[in-house]
Amino acid sequence: MKKIFPFLGLAVLLMLLVFNFYNPFTVEAEEGKGEHVANFVPDQLTGWEVVDKKLGETESVESRAAAILNLDDFVYRNYSRNGGKEFFEVYVAYWPAGKASIVDVSAHTPDRCWTKNGWEITDMEHRVENQSGEEPLLPAEWRAFEIKGNEQYVYYWHLVGGDAYQYGNRSNSFPTPYAYVRDFMRSKVLGTGEQYFIRFNTNIPFDQLWQNQQFQEVLSDVSELGLTVREEDLNASS
Q1: Other residues' Cβ atoms within 10 Å of the Cβ of residue 145
Q2: Three-state DSSP class for 30?
Q3: 154-187 b/e (C-beta count within 10 Å ≥ 16 → b)
Q4: Per-residue confidence of the chain (238 residues) as pLDDT tens digits?
Q5: CA-CA to 181 of 20 to 30 Å: which in 53, 82, 208, 232?
């Protein structure tokens, strides 16, 4: 029985190569919505200073990040108070249907990108359920990071065709073989649908920040991009 596994692995590898270079089911990229995500992230907030950030600290780093991510639109907005001692940030990236594979988008999580830049994951929770006001949110990934005594807390979602991507109960610094094959085949055969990556990060514990009225205003606006559970999903589960 064990002898068959190498042949199965080889067959899967050959299938992936075939679909990578010749795909009879090719799904053409759609035009998409263009620039729109900044409209869902307030640029003014009572009691907080609001500053837009770039993808990189320098122009060359920003250009390289944009080339790697291959996104259509993004916003990266910092909200701070008390002279910057307290802050939270919102990052939203958007890809129209067919623009980027699920494999590529799901690879760029804080688990991978932040740890490559020196941050350490100190705690994590998976498929965390929460609410924006009275609206239930799609399950999120939660992380606590630390670098040189500085802590940040992160919620992030990857939306694929309106559904929350399932990373599994693990750190997402790299995909499992099963997830890689699943996402590769879905991207090549079924298409991706629109994709969003949405991240909230802060140096304020979320159980405190969640009680802040202004933060809830931001969360409510961002949720309109598709973070709330759809009515048909609620009906299906009831």
Answers
A1: 21
A2: coil
A3: bbbbbbbeeebbebeeebbeebeeebbbebbbbb
A4: 445 545 444 444 444 444 444 444 455 556 778 899 999 999 999 999 999 999 876 555 666 766 667 788 999 999 999 999 999 999 999 999 888 887 788 888 999 999 999 999 999 999 999 999 899 999 999 999 999 999 999 999 999 988 898 888 878 665 565 555 555 555 555 556 899 999 999 999 999 999 999 999 999 999 999 999 977 655 444 3
A5: 232
Domain ranges of the chain: 33-229
Place of tokens 């009515």: 231
Q: Which two tokens stand for residue 206?
A: 């979320």
